[in-house]
Write a structure and sequence with these properties.
Helices cover 13% and strands 34% of the residues. It has 251 residues and is mainly beta. The protein has 2 domains: 4-37 and 134-224, Jelly Rolls (Sandwich); 46-123, no CATH class. It has a 4-stranded antiparallel beta sheet, with no helix packed on it. Strands 16-2-19 form a 3-stranded antiparallel beta sheet, with no helix packed on it. A 3-stranded antiparallel beta sheet has the order 15-3-18, with no helix packed on it. It is elongated and about 105 Å long. The termini are far apart.
Length: 251
């Protein structure tokens, strides 16, 4: 997939016993991705109707090509697109009732999210969606590593391991060039002998770039605290003698 990479850092980030180190950050100054993952991919290519699951070939579709191929994949059904509303209507060719399972992975593409029981035909409640993935997320997948606090879906406080979020503003099969001059990911440890970098889509799935390489640079910043310099031992000894003399004089 080229989206799950392990970097062996050996001993380059072993600073747990170094008391001068306050914290360590990593960042992605630049990145070049290719918008080559498919719109219909291994995560969203199945549809379940009446307990039968249909699998669509992976690829980049538009509404017309999806409609043209639908009846050859989903036997006994046809699909039509309303050019004004961009909504699909599914029809059972033999008539009668049918049930579409709302949890089918392809539901987001076709424009529904709930279980549907219909007779003859049904028009979906939402527009179809053949847009490419809107963002790519570079994540640090080293187990407990995280980058600050975020609000989870259920309202609880959670953590994020996102190193950077890259907006996809390019056409299919063209390059996405990303520049980052500000954001840094603070590591919650001073000792790390490897980095597991993953590239995920907007739904948190590992991205399949279909054999096309990606390029990104990692920058590691080590922030040190300034320690107070200790003087000569003789100076410390003289200070102790003076303090003792002054104390005895007060008596």
């Amino acid at each position: 997939m080229k989206s799950d990479v392990l970097y062996d850092l050996k001993n380059y980030l072993m600073y747990e016993d170094d008391k001068t180190v306050e914290y360590i950050t990593i960042s992605v100054p630049s990145c070049v991705l290719v918008n080559s993952n498919y719109i219909i991919n291994q995560y969203n290519n199945t549809l379940t109707i009446d307990a039968t699951t249909y699998t669509f070939p992976l690829g980049n579709y538009i509404a017309k090509t999806f409609v043209d191929n639908f009846s050859t994949i989903v036997a006994g059904f046809t699909l039509a697109i309303n050019q004004i509303t961009s909504r699909f209507t599914i029809t059972k060719t033999a008539g009668g009732s049918f049930t579409i399972i709302g949890s089918s992975p392809i539901s987001f593409v076709m424009g529904f999210s709930e279980n549907i029981t219909a007779t003859g035909s049904h028009t979906f409640s939402r527009v179809c969606n053949f847009l490419p993935n809107p963002t790519y997320q570079l994540c640090v997948a080293n187990g407990s590593m995280y980058n600050g606090l975020v609000l989870a879906v259920d309202g609880r406080v959670s953590y994020s391991n996102i190193l950077c979020s890259i907006p996809n503003d390019s056409r299919l099969n063209t390059q996405i060039v990303y520049q980052n001059n500000a954001n840094e990911f603070r590591l919650n440890t001073l000792s790390c002998d490897f980095l597991n970098i993953q590239i995920r889509d907007n739904n948190g799935n590992l991205v399949d770039f279909n054999g096309i390489a990606t390029f990104f640079s990692l920058q590691i910043n080590i922030y040190r605290r300034q320690l107070k310099m200790v003087g000569q031992f003789s100076d410390m000894l003289n200070s102790a003698i003076v303090s003792s003399f002054d104390l005895s004089k007060n008596e």
